[in-house]
Amino acid sequence: MALINKNDIETLLNVQNNTQNALCISIYIPTHRAGKETLNGQDHILFKNKIREARNLLQRHDVPEAEIEEYMKPAEELLNDNNFWRHQAEGLAVFITKGYSAHYTLPITMPDVVYVLDQFYITPMLPILSQNGRFFILCLYREKIGFFEATIEKIRPIDISSFVPESMNESLKFDVKGNDQDFNTSRTTVNGTNILGNPSGFSKGDQQHDRVREFLNDVDNSLQKILHDAHEPLVLAGIDHYCAIYRKTSNYKNIVPENVPVDENADLINIKNIHEKALEIVKPMMQQSHTESLTRYQNVAGTGATSEDIATVAAEAVHGRVDTLFIAPSEPVWGSYNAKSATAEIHSEYQRGDDDLINLAATKTLAQGGKVFVSSYNGLAESSNGGASVKALFRY
């Protein structure tokens, strides 16, 4: 299960920029985890309709039928993967161009849309990629190591079983005796090193601490396979002792200071409860970050360090000048960027080669390390004089 992140946006940008004479197909649909919609194949049927719509759009671009078949082959393969449709979340995004395809299951509901453009269209995913979009939860239980992707409204488990041991008990050979725990004296392997139980000169308490630290360090290294250089907050849930060890040894840069204390017997499978407790920690942080960024914008508004003109914002984003971007949901603003004049212009309706300038501004801002806030997401909204759909704070 792939997690969409900034690296993926950079990949999409590189693919579209390096693929000559090719169109980029972006398909979004809302999906369902379970229920009658899943049983009735509603998501599968909707995706089939989106494939048909994409084919029609390719025909409007005068693409020969043989090329259309080649374009749509990855989508058809996904359509026919019955197992894939049994494991959906709230939304699905699919990106296809010549020689490339990628898809992502998403923790928020997606619109029912298809775009066939010269660029990939990522605007519907901005609520996830924005500063106030999502966070992660790592549950450090003896009986179960769990990793979750979460937003204000939703939480979903991420399968990490292929590269992280399922439990500490399994990996470290805990003996559980009532409410106490001890190590047995069997040989176990951590990071390829054989460790004997209770070696001479070490107390069982020392041994437990060292082995737990090794195990949690292994978990942290393994999680980098999916986190990469993600910036989203990571909330730890578990016994204080385990969380403290993980926080001290982890390489992840944005572990929140406060962890979610748990009763392992009561909370082991209560994902909803863990989500609610994590929100109590994370939501104020998101609101504070948004408020501070908006205050910075307002303090210099009208001095030339900001803009609410989408053509100006899009051009400055291409130049790498946008530090913080605020976006309010709107219809696409079609236009184009002229590299020779280093300016962008708005078109009253779509023209071949156009990009949604909001999409352009957001992708360039994210790819170059800027912050993006979606104003109507997670209950974080700012006033907008004149109803501008974007606000940008420039770096210089």
Write up this protein.
- The protein is α+β, with helices and mostly antiparallel strands.
- It has helices spanning about 5-20, 35-40, 40-60, 65-80, 125-130, 170, 205-225, 240-250, 265, 270-300, 310-320, 355-365, and strands spanning about 25-30, 90-95, 100-105, 115, 135-140, 145-150, 155, 175, 180-185, 190, 195, 235-240, 305, 320-325, 335-340, 345, 355, 370-375, 390-395.
- It folds into 3 domains: about 1-120, Translation, Eukaryotic Peptide Chain Release Factor Subunit 1, Chain A (2-Layer Sandwich); about 135-285, Nucleotidyltransferase, domain 5 (2-Layer Sandwich); about 300-395, 60s Ribosomal Protein L30, Chain: A.
- The protein contains 12 helices and 19 strands.
- The two termini are about 40 Å apart.
- Residues about 175-205 and about 375-390 have low confidence and may be disordered.
CATH topology of the largest domain: Nucleotidyltransferase, domain 5
Q: What is the number of helical segments per DSSP (H or I, 4+ residues)?
A: 12
Mean pLDDT: 84
Helix content: 25-40%
Integer count of domains: 3
Based on the structure given, which CATH architecture of the largest domain is correct?
2-Layer Sandwich
The biggest beta sheet is recorded as: 4 strands, antiparallel
Q: Can you tell me the overall shape? A: globular
InterPro entries: Bact_RF_family3
Pfam families: baeRF_family3 (PF18845)
